[in-house]
Structure formats: C-alpha cells, structure tokens
C-alpha cells in the first residue's frame, strides 16, 4: 500500500526543521505525525517516538523536548499521533494497541523512504503509553535496532488489577495474558541493545529487582548481558530531562 505522504505546515528553527506529516496506513486511512529533521548534511540515524496519555499528546512540552533534543544531536525524530481508542474499538475488530503498533510500523516504512535517514540505524523510545507502544514494536518489527522503553515495563497484573493501578484498556492487547507477559515480550528483542528507564513512584518501582532479571537472563543466553541496561529515578511517573539525557547517551 503506498504511503501517499503529504506534508502540512513547517517551523524552521536554527538547527532543526519541524514538519507536519500525514501518511496512509490502511486504504484511505491516514495517520498524522511530527517530523523533526536536523539541518546537518548527510544521512542520519532515526528515532521513532510514540507518545502516551500526555496532555495534548505530541504537543506536550516533554514530548517536544525529547524530539528537539534528538534532532539537535543529529537524529531524525518522528512522533506519530497516538490513537487512544475506547473499548468500542473492539466492536469493529481492532484493538487500540494493535492500531498504534501497525501505525508505528508504517512510520518506520516512512522513515526508510526519507533521503535524510540511514535506514540501517532506526531506534525507538517512548514513555508511559509510548513506552508500551515501544515494547510491542520491539517484538513486532526487526527493523528497530535499539530501544528505550520509559516508565512502563512491569508484569501486566500491576497495571490491570483494580487493586493496583488499573491502566487504560487502550494499551492492552485483548487476551494477551493467555500467552505471555511484558518481560517475555521485551526479551524477544534480544540480543539488540535496550535501556529500560523506571521510577520509584509508579508501577515500575520494583522493575530492577523483579522484571529486569528475567529479561537479562535471556540476554545472558546470547552472551550479550552488556546490551541490556536498567536505570531508575527517585520520582513520580515522568520522562524528565535527566531521563531524556540518559536516553540520548544510550542511543
């Protein structure tokens, strides 16, 4: 299916260019996004930046800051507008996370077509619901060469249980607990490099001691324990500047 790319408005800054972009996912169905292009010449690595339930979505200052930071450091950064659908979406046979994952895969298709992008160096990072999208994309698309899921990975029971932190249904694939759980999904990314960022003030507080050892054990089978990292911050649910700087350094 042709991407049929269309561009909208643009903002020309000193060291990067921001462009509004639209492209086709299903026949006659288009998704919108925000493309941050560095002004340095040549081909650049690219980072896909799915976002979660931030106020105003991709326009939230934290989301924009991450993409601007990447562009200033020489990366092409793309952020697709997330589709946080209600349970009504199941009536037409589409789950929200399924739609967002496919949109993100089509976003990689788009990145591969851009003359500014080195298609052999594509990564992904996202926080909260954007981290959930990153996790699914890590398992679904081999074109992702490195990833940083933020403020996300935990056993599903921590975000699905009413006694814990009941999370938005839009980030959960229907019936997935019959087959797998988040550490196993993340481990399918081995042996490619991944950095997990967690926080003490949300459902990822025990990640370094519980979920992370499971993921690391799979990397150990590949002899690639150095390729999987974990860092945690004393904070509530966030993607703060120090966390973003850690992400930049990893990529």
Show unreliable segments.
Answer: none
Radius of gyration in whole Å, from Cα? 17 Å
- Any idea what the shape is? globular
Helix content, binned percent: 25-40%
Strand % is 25-35%
The largest beta-sheet arranges its strands as 1-2-3-5-4-6-7-8-9
Number of helix segments?
Answer: 7
Number of strands: 9
Q: What structural class do the secondary elements suggest? A: alpha/beta
Mean pLDDT: 90
SSE string:
EEEEHEHEHEHHEHEH
Describe the main β-sheet briefly: 9 strands, mixed
Distance between the termini: 31 Å
Explain how this protein is built.
With 251 residues, this protein is α/β, with parallel strands linked by helices. Helices cover 29% and strands 28% of the residues. It has 7 helices and 9 strands. It has helices at residues 61-72, 96-113, 129-140, 156-160, 182-187, 211-221, 241-250; strands at 6-12, 16-26, 29-38, 44-48, 76-80, 117-127, 146-150, 194-201, 228-236. Strands 1-2-3-5-4-6-7-8-9 form a 9-stranded mixed β-sheet, with helices on both faces. Helix 2 crosses helix 3 (129-140). The radius of gyration is 17 Å and the shape is globular. The mean pLDDT is 90.
Describe the structure in brief:
This protein has 251 residues and is α/β, with parallel strands linked by helices. The chain has seven helices and nine strands, in the order ββββαβαβαβααβαβα.
Give structural attributes.
251 residues, alpha/beta, nine-stranded mixed sheet, 29% helix
